[in-house]
Every structure is written in C-alpha cells, then in structure tokens.
C-alpha cells in the first residue's frame, strides 16, 4: 500500500513538468505535422487537406534543394571543425587545470557560446569586411590580395562555418573537460607503465573512453548547426544588402515561405523534412557508436 502511494505521489509530482513539456515540445511537432498535410494559407479561410502534395512540391523546388544543400554543408562543416578542435583544446586545458589560469581559460573559451547571435555575427561581419575588415588587412601584410569574403557564395558558407564553429566550440570543450575529469587516473598510470607516451595514451586510451561524450557533443552540435539562421541572415547578405540571400538555408527558407509568401503548410513540410533529417542522423550516430562498442 505504501509502495503504491509513493508511486502515485511521484506521478503527481512529475505530471506538471510532463504537461509543460508536452505543450511546449510535443504539441508543436504534432501541429507542424498536421499543417504540412494541408494547403494552409494565412490569407485564405479554406485550408483543404492535400496529403503529401507539399512534400511532392518540395522535391521539385530549386530553392528548397539549394537551402538543404547549403544547410547540410554548413552543419557537417561545423561538426568536422568543432569536434576535433574541442577535443584537443579540452585535453590541453585539462592538462593545465592545476595552474592559476585554468579557470580563466575555461571561462574565456565558453564566452562565445553565451554571446548573443546577432552582435556576434555583426562583429564577424566586420572581421570579414572586404574593405575595412582586419582579416584582409592581416592577409595584406603577407602579400595576399583582399578577398570579398561575404559576397562570394562559397566563401560565405566558409565564413558561416567559422562563425558557427566559434560559437559551438566553448560548449563542446566544457563537456569534454568534464569527460576528461571523469576518467580514472589508474588507466593512464597503467598505460604509462606499459610504455605509452602522453600522445599515445591520449589517442588510444582517452579518446576511446570518451566515445559517449563525443556522441553527445556530436548530436548537439549537428542539431544546432542544422538550425543555422541568424548567422546566415546577418553574414550572407547579397550585393543589394538583402539579408540571407547570398546563402539560403532551411530555417530562413521556412520563415520566408511562412511570413512572406503566406504558405504555412508548405513551410511546415520543410520543417518536417528537417526533423526527419536530424532524427535520422542522430539515430545513425547512436548506431555507429553501438557498433564500435561491440567491436
């Protein structure tokens, strides 16, 4: 009887949290799925059910394919840059934890993660400016001609990857530092007794033991990178100054279809595609980690 009452108390205690989670997280997903199956026009009262017609139209939409390609390049570029760099920086900071500058290093590298996106993007836009930016000034010292970084589609994507990686790096490093601190010292002492150098212990002992941390950081980084928006909106302006036109990304395309073209159902179908892509990549990452763990 007492056991049943404890379970009832626990269920009632957690029920408000579950209700808020369902309303804030689950309900919008279900509503988006519903909207994607309708021709939902803000200006029209008639919102007929059209099934998968929005998704069929997406497949032939050149702008959607361009946005999907750009977003995928940015997301995987951020992942490839962030994970190895965060792992190395976390190892260096962890190695110097006992120094007086240890807490300062951890705080300094985490600051970009909490800086507001728009001011950060404006600062980087000044850095990449073709005429007044310090990057071109620095390259000029070495005789390299100035580049129009933000007015070339390829270089614009590279600039967005740099900005997103700079912002994601602090969080990834902090998580890796926590992972390093959780590793048992006895394992490294045993590796040292076996003749392993510090570099060998890092690659063959620490990195394999940090696979769960790497999985978590990879998933969080990839999800965040696929939702890139403000960075492209501020950095990638076209030659007429229209925001976000130089590099079209998925979230920007969704917002444009919703609030400029009033095609909410069509934009919802884009959101569903983004959800499926992110969910699939997350499951693939979990599967890869499980396969490596079995080996």
Automatic annotation (TrEMBL):
It is found in: Cell membrane. The chain crosses the membrane at residues 73-95, 107-127, 154-178, 264-289. It is a multi-pass membrane protein. The keyword Methyltransferase does not apply. The keyword Transmembrane helix applies. Gene3D superfamilies: MetI-like (1.10.3720.10). InterPro entries: ABC_transporter_permease, MetI-like, MetI-like_sf. Keywords: Cell membrane, Membrane, Sugar transport, Transmembrane, Transmembrane helix, Transport. Belongs to the binding-protein-dependent transport system permease family. This is Multiple sugar transport system permease protein. It comes from Devosia enhydra.
């Amino acid at each position: 009887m007492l056991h049943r009452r404890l379970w009832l108390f626990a269920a009632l205690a957690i029920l408000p949290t579950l209700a808020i989670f369902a309303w804030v997280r689950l309900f919008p997903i279900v509503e988006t799925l519903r909207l994607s199956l309708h021709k939902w026009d803000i200006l029209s009262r008639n919102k007929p059910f059209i099934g998968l017609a929005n998704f069929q139209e997406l497949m032939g939409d050149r702008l959607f394919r361009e946005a999907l390609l750009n977003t995928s390049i940015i997301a995987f570029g951020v992942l490839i840059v962030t994970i190895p760099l965060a792992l190395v920086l976390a190892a260096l900071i962890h190695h110097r934890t006992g120094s007086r500058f240890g807490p300062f290093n951890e705080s300094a590298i985490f600051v970009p993660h909490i800086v507001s996106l728009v001011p950060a993007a404006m600062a980087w836009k000044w850095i990449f400016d073709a005429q007044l930016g310090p990057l071109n000034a620095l390259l000029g010292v070495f005789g390299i001609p100035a580049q129009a970084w933000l007015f070339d589609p390829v270089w614009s994507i590279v600039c967005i990857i740099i900005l997103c990686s700079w912002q994601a790096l602090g969080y990834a490093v902090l998580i890796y530092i926590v992972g390093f601190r959780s590793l048992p010292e006895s394992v490294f002492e045993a590796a040292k007794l076996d003749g392993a150098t510090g570099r060998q212990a890092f690659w063959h002992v620490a990195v394999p033991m940090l696979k769960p941390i790497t999985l978590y950081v990879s998933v969080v980084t990839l999800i965040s990178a696929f939702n890139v928006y403000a960075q492209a909106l501020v950095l990638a302006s076209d030659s007429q100054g229209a925001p976000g036109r130089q590099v079209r990304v998925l979230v920007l395309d969704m917002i444009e279809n919703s609030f400029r073209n009033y095609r909410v159902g069509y934009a919802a179908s884009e959101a569903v595609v983004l959800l499926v892509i992110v969910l699939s990549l997350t499951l693939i990452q979990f599967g890869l980690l499980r396969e490596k763990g079995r080996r």
